[in-house]
Amino acid sequence: MRKKIVFVILLFSICGSLRAQTMYEFNYYFDFDGIREEYKALMYTNGDGTGFMRVKYFNKQLKTWFLIDMDMKESYGRDKNKNIDYNKIVFEGKDPYVIIGDTNFVYAPDLFWFKVDPQTGYMDPWAVISVEDGKKYEGVYTKAELIEMEDLTKDFVLQFFPKDDPFYKSLFEPVIRTGGTFSQPAQLHLITVANTEDDKIGPTCAIDKKSTNKIFSSIATVLGIPFKATEISGNDFSKANVLKALNGINSGANDIIVFYYSGHGFSKGNNDPNLFPYLDFRLNNLTQKLADEQMNIEEIYKMIKVKQGRVKLVLSDCCNWGDQMESVISPNVASSRSSSLGLSIESCQQLFMSPEPVSYLITAAQKGEVSAGTLVQGGFFTSQFKSALEKYMGIGNKDQFSWSDVVRLAQEQTKKIASGVQCPQPENETIFKDCKQTPVYKRN
Question: Which residues contact 196 (CB under 8 A, 6 or more apart)?
Answer without folding.
Answer: 202, 205, 206, 209, 233, 234, 237
